[in-house]
Amino acid sequence: MFEKEYDVIVVGGGHAGAEAAAAAANMGSKTLLVTMNLQTIGQMSCNPAMGGIAKGQIVREIDALGGYSGIISDKSAIQFKMLNKSKGPAMWSPRTQNDRMRFAEEWRLALERTPNVDFYQEMVMGLLVKGERVVGVRTSLGIDIKGRSVVLTNGTFLNGLIHIGEKQFGGGRAGEKAATGITEQLSAIGFDSGRMKTGTPPRVDGRSLDYTKMIPQPGDIIPEKFSYLDIPLLTNQRDCHMTHTSKEVHELLKEGFDRSPMFNGRIKSIGPRYCPSIEDKINRFADKDSHQIFVEPEGWDTVEVYVNGFSTSLPEDVQFKALRSVKGFEHVKFFRPGYAIEYDYFPPTQLKHTLETKLIQNLYFAGQINGTTGYEEAASQGLMAGVNAHLKINELPAFTLQRDEAYIGVLIDDLITKGTEEPYRMFTSRAEYRTLLRQDNADLRLTPKGYAIGLASEERLHKMQEKEKKSDAFIDFFRNTSFSPEAMNPILEEVSSAPVRQADKMYKVFSRPNVTMEHMLQLEEVANYVDTHELGREVMEQAEIQVKYSGYIAKEKNNADKLQRLENIKIPEGFDYTKLRSLSYEAREKLQAIKPVTISQASRISGVSPSDISVLLVFMGR
Question: Phi and psi at residue 501, in whole multiples of 5°?
Answer without folding.
Answer: -100, -20
